[in-house]
Task: structure prediction
Amino acid sequence: MPDSYGEGSQFAADLGELYEVATKGLRPLSNEYSRFSSKIEEATQYDLDQPPTGGAVSRGQSALQSGRALTSLRDDIQFAFARSCENVESAAVTLIEVANTYAAVDEETQSDFDAYLADNELAGPMMAPPKAPVYPDSRNQVRPQA
Result:
């Protein structure tokens, strides 16, 4: 019997650890990034380029320029969170696939990995993949290809 789940006789990797990093570390982080990108999207309801209520702006258009800068910054931050969500989720999916593929090659490893998964079912369900992140509607940002 190996010292920990997923060690098996053929592979030295602890598949349980790979699986746990993916499902309990990376996937929750990906969900947070998705949530952040959605929260930032809510800020788009505020038009930062609106002139002040009182009318004209003194000293040129500095208030309008600040609004554009804030809008650009908001879009950059939203883009970073959305892209990070996809990258972290991709890493989680890859680790899960690696663990499942390695386990399938060796009978002892598969048996140990199945025992690990059964034990973890008792601890609670695996976190679901995140909702699709929300990218900014900006001409300056191009949504990356999936």
Observations:
- The chain has three helices and no strands.
